[in-house]
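Workshop exercise sheet. Pairs work together: one partner reads the sequence aloud, the other fills in the structure field after running the prediction. Swap roles for the next sheet.
Pair: D.N. / O.F.
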Amino acid sequence: MARYLSVINATNKGRYSGGHHKNKMTSNKFDDILSRLGTGKWNFYTLIVMSYWMMQVPSQILPGAFITPAVPHTCRPPPNATVIPQDNDTHIQEQCSYMVMGGNGSVEEHPCTEWDFDHSVYGDTLTEEFKLVCGRKFLRPLYNSMYFIGSFFGSPVNGWFADRYGRKLTLTIGSIVYTVLGNSINWLPDLTAILVVRFFSGLFHSACIQPGYSMVMETFEARYRSVAGIIIFMPWCVGMMVLGGVASVLPNWRWLTFTMSLPLLLFLPAAWFLDESPRWLIVRGRHSKALRVLQRAARWNKVSLPPERELRTLMQDIMIESRGHEVSKKGGFMSHLKTIVEQFSILVRTKRMRRITLCVYYLLLACGMGYYGLSLGGESFSTSPYIYIVMSGLMEVPGSTLTIPLVGRCGRRYPNVVLFFLTAAVLLSATFIPKRISWLMMALALVGKLTLSAAFQIVYLHLTELFPTEVRTRGMGTASMMSKLGSTISPFLVDSLRSVWGSAPSIVLGCTSLLAAFVTCLLPETKGAALHDTVAGLEASGYVRYYHDYMFTCTLPRRHGLNQNQNQKAVYFIIGRNVPLRVRSSSKRHDCCD
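Structure field:
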């Protein structure tokens, strides 16, 4: 049976337009321009500049593993206090009070205000400087979570800004603010100010990532686009390894943040020479500037472009065809937020769409929580957090690259089920490893990081194919926010559970991944399947039975009053009704629907 089905909503004629086909035509026309430009210095410059930026980002997201760790400490009573020694059986590493002999011979408990910190693993940390222990220990995971909270709120804001005012302007402003914040945090003497800076760093995080990624995707021709999309994130792994190496050499947290933030400054002059996305300029009607960008690209790549008149005509056609898709982006920011809230209901209104939405939400919540739980949990899974973070970055290299042939050969659903099961298996088995065999526990955690990183990438690919065209943008946007919510939870989850039982983080993250494997089974496979244009088409696809042995035509009975086209190889549906359809194929007759 033909896999590409044409869906007609007979009860709501004209409600869903063929916008996806217009967008495809627009993409094809612009891809023709990119094919003429080819792939050369102009494209590689954008890719190299953004790859350099991606290498610096882990040092701003993950330094909490070395800046706010749970440092072993003991209470330091006042010198003149008559302290009653604690028994060895009841002595614990974290002391929040001490016992003294009162004047009348009674034993009194006093709260501890000074501590001695162990420097055998960590040097001068923010934990020690601001005494983030006992009643203030919740501020340690808050240091990491403040960044993710800012990123949670920044994603929709920066996405709207990039669509409204351009990729380069958003990237320029975002990178300048991000660089200033990154280089100022080590000079701040107050913890509250440090947490505020962390929040705003997260707020501008997506302003430095999303526009740059869009610029790379919109400047590479179609045949190299997927490769460029993978290459741009590979330096992330290198950045993690560099962070672990530098942190082992610079144990002082202020020198560490200062050293890791300085390379951000090198990006700013390089970003000045980046060109605005020509596609965005064309869609926005700024054809003269788009023409200058294309001409500059042609000079860099040493190719020739069609005549200016032909290019302007092509730009006009692209703008007209894409105008229908840009309507929703007009208006102010509050109008944009109102539209998001109003249109969100379509994601949970119907049965199949609701199942896909809720399943995808949980999967990204689990991936975000597990990924950063394993990334920031070096002290739970190894004796050396520095070696752990270096190896963790190394594990992401195969996790990011091997997924390409895997999904091409095996699809999306079954590889993810296997990867989530493997993640759960290694994390749950780590709970049975004795602490003295620390290398085995670290190895299991790193294998879990590898499989979860691969699953994370496949989930993003799968969700882009699961959401129909008319809701794909809002579906991906809200799903991405669930991932950031999981990232926000993970520091508190890992830190609080570790204080109760050392193996608790592994059990929780393992059970979360195990549940994710079962949730993935509820999603349909999308390999080789046609992408749905509308929610109505997605709901109607639940009635289809695929017959692979015959090319046939389904026709509605005449009593439904629809025009018949006996030669059209497509299936027609009455939306919301279980209508039996007749199939004609050679001499055989089948029912398309139950």
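Discussion prompt: The CA atoms of residues 170 and 503 lie 43 Å apart. What would you look at next?
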